[in-house]
Amino acid sequence: xxxxxxxxxxxxxxxxxxxxxxxxxxxxxxxxxxxxxxxxxxxxxxxxxxxxxxxxxxxxxxxxxxxxxxxxxxxxxxxxxxxxxxxxxxxxxxxxxxxxxxxxxxxxxxxxxxxxxxxxxxxxxxxxxxxxxxxxxxxxxxxxxxxxxxxxxxxxxxxxxxxxxxxxxxxxxxxxxxxxxxxxxxxxxxxxxxxxxxxxxxxxxxxxxxxxxxxxxxxxxxxxxxxxxxxxxxxxxxxxxxxxxxxxxxxxxxxxxxxxxxxxxxxxxxxxxxxxxxxxxxxxxxxxxxxxxxxxx
Length: 297
Description:
Helix content is 7%, strand content 62%. The chain is mainly beta. Keywords: Signal.
């Protein structure tokens, strides 16, 4: 998911597939992704529709702006959605958002989903904000209001935010160091209610880009029940606009461990459209087959 100019810069080189930006002029633009996915889990098939998009305004020649955003999913006749939006101020020191900004963590990691399965991406928060996971899947929750900051310091990009929701607080911070062919990412997210519940999630990642091959690893610690997951992945650009991906993940918790793997192929068209197919084993079912079409902008 790519929600802003910041995200586009962070993920440069992570994929060879083209995307199209909707620039309406006068500082108004749209970014996001819309996808329809068919999946078969151990013989049970479903169709999932997913969309994530931001409409952004930046004062021409000025520092002020804002955005409104929407994440939505629909599956088995049920749908959930969550809205975002904030006023923004951009200067030499960075970008400030006040309102209901998106989670910082989601903009600093971009590992491929196991088997190319969107359904897995939505429910397994590896290299992904736990906040966005529960907000997207639990539509009865209001978007937490708060403030977010992002800045660039040489090769280091960093962000942090504070959000208040009904009965609790969320604090998250993330950073990404971009070197010539290697990048390192890290994040921490703290969720705490006004009672005794508190949850801290850590993500640590590294990625290397070698001509047509991208390799990386992400470690996620969920805290609760000593849960953690480690994902390693490789993306190979076989020919122009065609990426092949392989992922392997190990899960650990106080109740034991498990592992999963997946393979996928994704072809991007010049107008931002793409088609993807994949297979995974051990994530949400013994065998999961997926096929999807979408547009990234």
